[in-house]
Amino acid sequence: MDRIDVTNPIVNFLFSLLEDVGKPKAEVAAKRVMERLSGVNIVPHFCRIEDKDLDFYNDFNIIVLGLDSVEARSYINAVACSFLEYDANDNPKEETIKPMVDGGTEGFKGHARVIIPGVTPCFECTIWLFPPQVKFPLCTLAETPRTAAHCIEYAHLIKWDEVHSGKTFDPDNPEHMQWVYTEAVKRAELFGIPGVTYSLTQGVVKNIIPAIASTNAIISAACALETLKIVSGCSKTLSNYMTYNGVEGVHIKVTEFVRDKDCLVCGPGVLIELDTSCTLQKFIDMVKEHPKLQLSKASVTYQGKNLYMQAPPVLEEMTRANLTESLFDLMRRVPSGTVHVTGTTSENGKKTSGVRKLRVAFKGVDGIADMDTAGGA
Ligand SMILES: [Zn+2]
Q1: Is 278 a catalytic residue?
Q2: Three-class HEC string of the chain
Q3: Per DSSP, what are the bridge partners of residue 105?
Q4: What is the pLDDT of residues 154-172, one digit of tens each?
Q5: 372 has pLDDT over 50
Q6: How far apart are the CA of 123 and the centre of ligand 1, in A?
Q7: CA of 58 to the centre of ligand 1 (A)
Q8: Ligand 1 centroid to 119 CA: how many Å?
Q9: What is the pLDDT of residues 22-35, one digit of tens each?
Q10: How far is the CA of 341 from the centre of ligand 1 (A)?
């Protein structure tokens, strides 16, 4: 979705010309690679990753990520894992595995990892690897700024709203950025704080850490190599998380992370077989009694759609009619599918909320044979 910024040519060999500034990165990158390598065919897509439907992603044999946020990674990870199916013994069906190679850099540090859904940890299994993003307390920004970043965030988060009531700040609008920069400079002068520059303003507001060409080259090379290994089978892939640190000297380490067996995104979930006549209400009662689930006051979603919600009252009312419908009909008569159930559990007398992933298979419907005989049919 990005367009080429004036600072990009320094760190990206594909955007070498100033005339590229303002053009979509995807289109220029595709053009430059095809110019350089004959026989290579690249189709650029200039849009949000969420704009493509599941069929688009399902067409690929492998997905290589060069994303810049946790949210975007989470999204693609969920998409790739949604194709994953398990057999009756909770083993992933090989033909439904969509491998991913993920790379990322931050200044002199970077990582490359291989995600084979159902085999290696998915992005969500190890989401704890990402530290929470630094946010400054508003009172510090408003009263006791101590750093250039504090002054920038003051202009960005507080002053902007005071002056432009109702107008949303657009980080991609140079005029907006310039306004924040000017205000931040005034703020810094008032408190005698040095270091506010336009590029720092961009960095703080957009949460950008300057990219380093060598780090990008090393990480993208690692990703390309892992991709080659997966598509050709020429060697074992790295298992499964490589970190690179070039801050002082060069340090490269591979750590093997393990899967979270209960992961709601890539895990098998609990398999439940139902009659096609089973109503949603009966299913909710069953979830409460099931020894592996024991969730009371359950809300149920299927493919992001609310089938039944206990709260808030307005949603409860909207979904109440579904309780007497059969789950089979509500799941559009598929032989099997995954539903997410949210409810309360009690552990040692303490009530906590929990989410469970359930693989529902309907008895006597085509496809059920797969569930009965592992890997059969
Ligand atoms: Zn996972």
Answers
A1: no
A2: CCECCCCHHHHCCCCCCHHHCCCEHHHHHHHHHHHHCCCCCCCCCCCCHHHCCHHHHHCCCCEEECCCCHHHHHHHHHHHHHCCCECCCCCECHHHCCCEEEEEEECCEEEEEEECCCCCCCCHHHHHHCCCCCCCCHHHHHHCCCCHHHHHHHHHHHHHHHHCCCCCCCCCCHHHHHHHHHHHHHHHHHHCCCCCCHHHHHHHHCCCCCCCHHHHHHHHHHHHHHHHHHHHCCCCCCCCEEEEECCCCCEEEEECCCCCCCCCCCCCCEEEEECCCCEHHHHHHHHHHCCCCCCEEEEEEECCEEEECCCCHHHHHHHHHHHHCEHHHHCCCCCEEEEEEEEEEEECCEEEEEEEEEEEEECCCCCHHHHHCCCCC
A3: 110
A4: 999 899 999 998 888 988 8
A5: no
A6: 6
A7: 19
A8: 9
A9: 889 899 999 999 99
A10: 17
Question: Cα angle vertex 39, ends 37, 41, to 5°?
Answer: 90
Catalytic residue among 47, 139, 263, 266: 139
Angle between helices 174-191 and 198-205 (to 10 degrees): 110
Compute, in degrees rounded to 10, the torsion defined by CA atoms 305, 308, 311, 315.
60
CATH superfamily name and code, 138-205: Ubiquitin activating enzymes (Uba3). Chain: B, domain 2 (1.10.10.520)
Tokens read off for 283: 């299913």
CB 28 within 8 A of CB 20: yes
Architecture of the domain defined by 270-372 = Roll (3.10)
The full set of domain ranges for the chain reads 1-47, 138-205, 270-372
Task: For residue 213, give both structure tokens.
Answer: 């060409």
With helix as H, strand as E and coil as C, how does 234-245 read? CCCCCCCEEEEE
Residue 240: is the preceding peptide bond cis (ω within 30°)? Answer: yes
| Average pLDDT value for residue range 68-97 | 87
User: Are 109 and 246 in contact, with CB atoms under 8 Å apart?
Assistant: yes
